[in-house]
Write a structure and sequence with these properties.
Helix content is 36%, strand content 24%. The protein is built from nine helices and ten strands. The strands form two sheets. Strands 6-7-8-3-9-10 form a six-stranded mixed beta sheet, sandwiched between helices. A four-stranded antiparallel beta sheet has the order 2-1-4-5, with helices on one face. Helix 3 packs across helix 4, helix 3 packs parallel to helix 5 and helix 5 runs parallel beside helix 6.
Length: 250
């Protein structure tokens, strides 16, 4: 019996980001219906992995595959239409209201107005975006509301791959906790493969089917929280557990 389809894959992938910093070689797989969460310090290369899958960065060595095929420049536009991408600040267009922001790409792709409205209202309900907000501009929304709209926009076209770059990082703890629960439900309902970046180990544990600890451009450990707890004492993963959860790996 086969498992979920591999939607996005890195194989021995290397990217030289500067004279002094190299990401990789790195191996990573994201499967349909599952969430891979990368956690680690700033500057460790986590966000570059998302940009590799989106075709925004080109690997110097190794393979990048998305939707079962190598990601080559000729496929970039086609692949991006099937990807949902959410950044830390949401990336909403300041001159468009909530409805226009969320439905922009669907309209650009020529989807029917009735289909778009049905999908938008359904996702808005799931993401707890109140209809009273639909005509508001981004500056009229709270941080949590903006991120909820950004999630609706990312899921509007039923993407096969969702990339989340610190989507909850700019929110206060109470809002972050509430949105985290809703995000988990939204992602599970979508059936998409998800690759997420965070600094928050609690967030990684709550949302990830697999947690990948990235340190200085390399994967230091991967698996469940139990797997991470088995990390060698003194390793970056052990120090991360100690700092974030008050634990020392044995």
């Amino acid at each position: 019996m086969t498992g979920p389809v591999v939607t996005a894959k890195l194989a021995e992938t290397v990217v030289r980001l500067s004279r002094d910093f190299v990401l990789g070689p790195i191996d990573l797989e994201a499967r349909a219906g599952e969430t891979v969460v990368m956690v680690g310090a700033s500057g460790s290369g986590k966000s570059t992995v998302l940009r590799l899958f989106a075709g925004l960065v080109v690997a110097d060595r190794g393979r990048v595959e998305v939707f079962g095929e190598p990601l080559v420049p000729a496929r970039h536009d086609t692949v991006r239409r099937r990807i949902g991408y959410v950044t830390q600040e949401g990336g909403l267009f300041p001159h468009l209201d909530v409805r226009a922001n969320a439905t922009l790409r669907a309209r650009a792709l020529g989807r029917g107005a009735e289909e778009i409205e049905e999908r938008f209202t359904s996702l808005a309900r799931l993401a707890r975006v109140d209809p009273s907000l639909f005509a508001r501009l981004p500056f009229e929304l709270s941080g949590g509301q903006r991120q909820r709209v950004a999630l609706v926009r990312a899921l509007m076209d039923e993407p096969g791959l969702v990339l989340l770059d610190e989507p909850l990082g700019a929110l206060d703890p109470v809002v972050r906790s509430e949105l985290r629960r809703d995000l988990r439900d939204l992602l599970r309902r979508s059936g998409a493969a998800v690759v997420m970046v965070t600094h928050d180990l609690d967030e990684a544990v709550a949302l990830g089917d697999e947690i990948v600890v990235v340190h200085e451009g390399r994967i230091d450990a991967r698996g469940s929280l139990a797997d991470l707890r088995a990390a060698e004492r003194g390793s970056f993963t052990a120090r991360l557990l100690d700092a974030c959860l008050g634990e020392v790996a044995t």
